[in-house]
Amino acid sequence: MATLVGRMQFPAGPTPVAVRGGELFDLSAAGTVSELLNLWPDVPEGVALGPLDAFAIDEAPLLAPIDLQCIKAAGVTFAVSAVERVIEERARGDARLAETIRGGLQDRVGADIRAVVPGSEAAARLKDALIADGLWSQYLEVAIGPDAEIFTKAPVLSAVGHGAQIGIRSDSAWNNPEPEVVMVVDRQGRALGATLGNDVNLRDFEGRSALLLGKAKDNNASCALGPFIRMFDRDFTIDDVRKAQVDLVIDGPDGFRLDGHSSMDQISRDPLELVRQARSEHQYPDGFVLFCGTLFAPTQDRDVPGQGFTHKAGDMVRIASARLGALENEVTTSAAAAPWTFGIADLLRNLDARAIRLRASDCQPVA
């Protein structure tokens, strides 16, 4: 039976919860999910609230299942996404040019990328060949080079949870969801579990310049996580992450429907290697989560032939995986989404008002 950890918005404030054997437990004594995981498995028993299925989620909404953890992401970890990033770069963010570029690049480099291990001698030879052909790109560097792309996706406490609206910049005309498995790591670097995430992507912004990555990725309500963290145990291990399939369904208000799939067994770097690189010469005393990247690259035309897919306000996005549940969000603009107003100082004041004291942890980050 799965052990789940998350957060719910109770009247008193955001509260860590756990689900064991289908029963919901209030773990507010832990204070934060970050502290709870840093102490894992030495955690409070919690107060039983009854079966999760019987709980009124609309009265206590699910929040993103993390709080003080840093939100990191790995990019271009699948061959298909590497090709799509090169397409964005060469199209300079213009969706109308993408289809012609896509055909030529996939014929030349698609199969070659799948056949090499990043950082290997074979990858170095492929890089030399692509440079000679004038096809090298900064995106191919992180796809097959020794160093993964690791960036900060969103500020602490800014992620939205299951059921919340997710935001796209109102000035973006070419964008898509990115359904991903997200690793959950404590201050010691222990990978303790996984959840689902939507690393919303603005293809026009990042396509114009990789230096616009921050504007493409970090906007109000542009990061969704949930519904819960599934903790690793005898019944759910890192090997389940390695072979997970992530399914995506988008239902538009215009009747448009898109189905996509992302298989983690196609990833070019092992999830634990991505965690290792994220921690290389950096420390995370409150832990971190790491989006592992996506195989999904939507090329299905929505309106105009050759222009591919882009979101519309009102799209319902469902990201699901058999062992991690389902994360559902409605698309709106970042300007129209509920503003992010509850920050770290607000959380500390709330905990103080509830007389909740974080336990002093003797955990120390490992080298």
Automatic annotation (TrEMBL):
One of its GO terms (biological process) is small molecule metabolic process. SUPFAM superfamilies: FAH. Belongs to the FAH family. InterPro entries: FAH (IPR051121), Fumarylacetoacetase-like_C (IPR011234), Fumarylacetoacetase_C_sf (IPR036663). Gene3D superfamilies: Fumarylacetoacetase-like, C-terminal domain. Keywords: Hydrolase, Metal-binding. This is Fumarylacetoacetate hydrolase family protein. One of its GO terms (molecular function) is hydrolase activity. Residues 147-331 form the Fumarylacetoacetase-like C-terminal domain. The keyword Translocase does not apply. It comes from Novosphingobium flavum. Signal peptide: none annotated.
